[in-house]
Backbone:
């Protein structure tokens, strides 16, 4: 049977919605890191990890990247302090 044009797809299309970071989070996903820095792309994160040696490195659980939130907050404070002193 040929699908009718009014049939809706069974899956969802387009980008996935951002998952908010809980206030008591210890680890956040790579997608949440990208969202934290203004909705950046995964390619931005990949380039950031290669070009900025002070950016926190991920921990891998299987093939998934997770970042420790405490390390990202420390990195943010360091970058802000460097920008304020310049």
Residues:
């Amino acid at each position: 049977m040929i699908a009718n044009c009014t049939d809706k797809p069974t899956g969802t299309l387009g980008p996935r919605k951002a998952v908010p970071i809980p206030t008591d989070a210890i680890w956040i996903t790579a997608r949440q890191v990208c969202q934290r820095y203004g909705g950046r792309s995964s390619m931005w994160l990949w380039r950031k990890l290669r070009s900025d040696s002070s950016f926190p490195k991920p921990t891998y659980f299987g093939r998934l990247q997770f970042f420790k939130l405490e390390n990202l907050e420390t990195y943010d404070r360091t970058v802000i302090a460097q920008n304020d002193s310049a």
Summary: Residues 58 and 75 are 13 Å apart (CA to CA). The chain has a mean pLDDT of 88.
